[in-house]
């Protein structure tokens, strides 16, 4: 026999685990290089640029730190904008497909 209350309890448990996993993404790191290592970008698991290194041969040393900060800010803003756009598109494409169960919030999955 199908137990709706048991299923709802499991869904809440799954939601909590997903939320915890998403919060832990901030601790992951990945580094990408280009120009034979002359430019290096470090991102976390939330797709945020957290560091940018530019070789001194590419810029005037006195401008390097400001340039790095500006690039990090611009890339992160673009990623944030894309996240909003992607969620909106996903919501449009799945509209009416997911069940409307009171108390069941699946928005964190999108």
UniProtKB/TrEMBL annotation:
- Give the GO cellular component terms, alphabetically: bacterial nucleoid; cytosol
In Gene Ontology terms, what is one molecular function of this protein? DNA binding
Claim: Cytoplasm is one of the keywords in the record: yes
Keywords (alphabetical) are: Coiled coil, Cytoplasm, DNA-binding
Which Pfam family, any one of them, does this sequence belong to?
YbaB_DNA_bd
Tell me where it resides: Cytoplasm, Nucleoid
Q: What is its main location?
A: cytoplasm
Q: Any coiled-coil ranges, and where? A: 4-31
As for what it does, the entry says:
Binds to DNA and alters its conformation. May be involved in regulation of gene expression, nucleoid organization and DNA protection.
User: Which protein family is named in the record?
Assistant: Belongs to the YbaB/EbfC family.
Tell me how this protein assembles.
Answer: Homodimer.
This chain's protein is named: Nucleoid-associated protein JL102_15175
Organism annotation: Fulvivirga sediminis
List the taxonomic lineage. Answer: Bacteria, Pseudomonadati, Bacteroidota, Cytophagia, Cytophagales
């Amino acid at each position: 026999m199908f137990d709706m209350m048991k299923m709802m309890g499991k869904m809440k448990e799954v939601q909590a685990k997903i939320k915890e996993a998403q919060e832990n993404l901030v601790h992951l790191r990945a580094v990408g290089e280009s120009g034979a290592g002359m430019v290096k970008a470090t991102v976390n698991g939330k797709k945020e640029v957290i560091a940018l290194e530019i070789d001194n041969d590419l810029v005037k040393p006195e401008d390097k730190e400001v340039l790095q900060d500006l690039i990090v800010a611009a890339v992160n803003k673009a990623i944030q904008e894309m996240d909003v756009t992607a969620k909106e598109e996903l919501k449009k494409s799945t509209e009416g497909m997911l069940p409307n169960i009171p108390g069941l919030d699946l928005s964190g999955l999108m």
